[in-house]
Design goal:
Elements: H1 3-12, H2 19-29, H3 33-36, E1 49-55, E2 60-66, E3 74-75, E4 81-88, E5 90-98, E6 103-112, E7 116-119, E8 124-128, E9 135-142, E10 150-151
Antiparallel strand pairs: 1-2, 2-9, 3-10, 4-7, 4-9, 5-6, 5-8
Bound molecules: fe (ii) ion.
Keywords: Dioxygenase, Iron, Metal-binding, Oxidoreductase
InterPro entries: CDO_1, RmlC-like_jellyroll, RmlC_Cupin_sf
Protein name: Cysteine dioxygenase
């Protein structure tokens, strides 16, 4: 079955995403690189490629392609919670603390293929591919993204 058909099938039966069942949902989806390969989008104006695979009133699913040594902008997620599954490669999740007028780098977490991590609305982060090979991540957000902000970290 095609991966987007699989997503439609899984989410037809899920009306509301809770922290507790995202792991089950990811397991049901258990995307491999081959499943998502044809949906990968090359970077255009940003360092990474971004493709919305599914969106309804409650959920948004994104596929992110981070080429070697590329990173996302520093951002938060507005009112959305997100769950990020590493489909291929590895990623450094760079975490920032919000100050009065800027953000400051705080720490990082390292995730590899098959691992899942989460972000809350006010989590301010960037994702960085520290390796020579491609990184692909699948993101589930609830509610859909909309009110997040981008930050320029203080160097
Ligand atoms: Fe994010």
């Amino acid at each position: 079955m095609d991966f987007t058909q699989k997503i439609e099938r899984v989410f037809r039966t899920v009306s509301n995403i809770h922290v507790a069942n995202v792991e089950d949902i990811m397991l049901q989806l258990s995307p491999t690189f081959q499943d998502v390969e044809k949906y990968l989008v090359k970077p255009q104006d940003l360092e990474y490629g971004r493709n919305v695979l599914f969106k309804n009133e409650g959920i948004e699913i994104l596929l992110i392609f981070l080429p070697h040594f590329s990173k996302t902008l520093v951002h938060d997620h507005g009112f959305s919670s997100g769950w990020i599954y590493v489909v291929e490669g590895s990623v450094l999740n760079l975490l920032y603390a919000k100050g009065k007028d800027d953000v400051k780098y705080e720490r990082n977490e390292y995730y590899q293929k098959g691992e899942l991590f989460s972000v809350k609305g006010d989590t301010t982060h960037a994702m960085y591919n520290p390796s020579l090979s491609a990184t692909v991540t699948l993101h589930i957000y609830s509610p859909p993204l909309g009110t997040g902000q981008v930050y320029k970290p203080h160097e």
